[in-house]
Amino acid sequence: MSPADLTGTGRAVPVPGAGLDPGVIAHVAVTATTLWVEPRTHRPDVDGPSLTNPVALDAWNATMQDTETRRWLTGKLESQAVLGSEVIVDEIDGDWARIVVTAQGTARDPRGYPGWVPTAHLVVDEDFAQRAPTSPTATVTALTSTLSGTRSGNHPGIDVSFDTILPVLGRTATAVRVAVPGARPASLPAEDVVVHEAGETPPLPTAEDVIATGERFLGLRYLWAGVSAYGVDCSGYTYTLFHHHGISIDRDAGDQMHHSGLKPVEREDLQRGDLCSSRPHRAGTRSATSPCTSGTT
Hints:
Elements: E1 25-28, E2 32-36, H1 44-47, H2 57-62, H3 67-71, E3 77-82, E4 86-93, E5 96-101, E6 113-118, E7 122-123, H4 126-131, E8 137-140, E9 144-148, E10 156-161, E11 165-171, E12 175-178, E13 186-189, E14 193-196, H5 207-215, E15 227-228, E16 231-232, H6 234-244, H7 253-259, E17 275-278, E18 288-291
Antiparallel strand pairs: 1-4, 1-7, 2-3, 4-5, 5-6, 8-11, 8-14, 9-10, 11-12, 12-13, 15-16, 17-18
């Protein structure tokens, strides 16, 4: 897109990658951006589809059919952030930016979860930033959906993942019009989202609510650092489930275990929906968490 392209509100469309100075607030402008421990450490022939704009996460998964190809990512990725996520830019190194994801709590940085992403995945969009905290929001409840450039919801465009949250501009019986960072307004099928008024939080879920949401991910392959419907790791899975239901817990398993604020439960008292944690199996690996789906482990 060029700056001359208009959003339909009379303003120019911000260009992804532009104006990313240290300290700037930006937003994720692709389906999901993947945070790396260091920039330019990817495998071009394997990880390339996850680094473009738009990303092609199905194609990325297709390049990692065997376990060893997928296991290579262990320790090289940090996390992911879905479309519309707020980030703080810390550093620019060529076409990569070191950021922190403000919604993902971590003991490593009080501002949010750190990592490196392509600058093309970020946009400085003041209009979106102003709307995000003050508008009704649409939260994607489908595992995946597709943004459309038309009000009727046809002519699909950008893919979006479960738990993507975007400001609402309008709605009909069949579609919800949303603001999109770095793009024109677009529509999502009404059946794929839940709309909350500004400042409204989801109702407190029951354990069965969280488990039912989690069971929708059955069959999804493990992806180190994943938090989207295109792949999750253990703590990314629990973080996403709880976040979707309006419960804030940290991003990593160790932090979830020690800093979540959830009441500790003895092993013999475990119930469905309790968050179970395990210690690392070996040095250099993360702890693991998952919702308990039975009364025993």
